[in-house]
């Protein structure tokens, strides 16, 4: 089959949505959003409102206002999670630099003998080199100027300040299991040992990328399977979620980590407030099921 559909105008999109059963009471608001948010970005939020996915017909009482509520909820959720992930990323970076630099030396991240997969390390170092080479940070400029004859990377406390969360998580996960710092870092983050933390960091990295690229999180099936602690050292949740493809499991993991890193955080409160602000949002699309604990409010408080 050859794709032969032409581009629609905004007016044509509105007419098509109405014919398919989506209620649009304020056409000016619909035009405003379609001018500033693409049709196919919004389509991710009305997809679940359709009872005929092939012909794109909507369920009865489907409203454009509810699509916008979902869109705005998802946008605010990404902003909230980005703030939480920042705390986790900075803590991981700090611990990697401190622990490994003292266990080995200032260039431990280039020490191929302490990593499991040398090929993966080479790939990670290539990404780190790109980050260092394009850096305009004054501390990198000064280092290159002062130590121009030293062709190595700047030491870990300079280089890894520029490194992405993805590269940091890859460095940690690739460390050999007999590296003492690997367990120390996991323990300092409340994760018992190195067995669990790599899968947690991979999960958070993926969500961080969704947030950075403004991708939809609501009702998304997430990749990866984080390993769950059988006996968490710190407070977990009353009823452990089983579905790792839904966001809720990953919210639990981020909340657990940020509770250790920044005990004074208000993540649970802000998440609860966000759900209250958008009552039309179905928590089940995030994996939050009322039967796990007695009600969503209690469930969130138990995070």
Automatic annotation (TrEMBL):
Pfam families: Abi_2 (PF07751). This is Abi family protein.
């Amino acid at each position: 089959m050859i794709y032969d559909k032409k581009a629609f105008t905004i007016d044509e999109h509105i007419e098509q949505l109405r014919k398919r059963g989506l209620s649009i009471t304020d056409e000016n608001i619909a035009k405003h959003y379609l001018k500033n948010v693409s049709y196919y970005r919004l389509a991710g939020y009305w997809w679940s409102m359709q009872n005929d996915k092939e012909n794109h017909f909507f369920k009865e009482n489907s409203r454009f206002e509810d699509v916008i509520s979902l869109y705005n909820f998802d946008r605010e959720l990404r902003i909230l999670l980005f703030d939480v992930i920042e705390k986790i990323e900075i803590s991981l970076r700090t611990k990697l630099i401190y622990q490994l630099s003292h266990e080995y030396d200032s260039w431990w991240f280039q020490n191929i003998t302490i990593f499991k997969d040398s090929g993966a390390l080479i790939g990670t170092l290539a990404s780190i080199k790109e980050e260092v080479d394009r850096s305009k940070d004054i501390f990198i400029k000064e280092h290159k100027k002062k130590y121009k004859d030293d062709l190595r990377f700047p030491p870990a406390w300079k280089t890894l300040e520029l490194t992405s969360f993805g590269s940091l998580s890859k460095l940690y996960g690739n460390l050999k299991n007999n590296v003492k710092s690997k367990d120390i870092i996991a323990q300092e983050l409340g994760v018992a040992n190195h067995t669990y933390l790599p899968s947690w960091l991979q999960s958070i990295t993926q969500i961080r990328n969704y947030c950075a690229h403004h991708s939809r999180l609501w009702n998304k099936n997430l990749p990866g399977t984080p390993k769950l602690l059988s006996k968490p050292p710190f407070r977990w949740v009353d009823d452990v979620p089983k579905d790792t493809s839904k966001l809720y499991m990953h919210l639990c993991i981020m909340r657990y980590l940020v509770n250790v890193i920044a005990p004074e955080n208000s993540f649970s409160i802000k998440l609860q407030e966000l759900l209250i602000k958008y009552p039309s949002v179905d928590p089940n699309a995030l994996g939050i099921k009322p039967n796990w604990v007695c009600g969503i409010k209690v469930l969130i408080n138990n995070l």
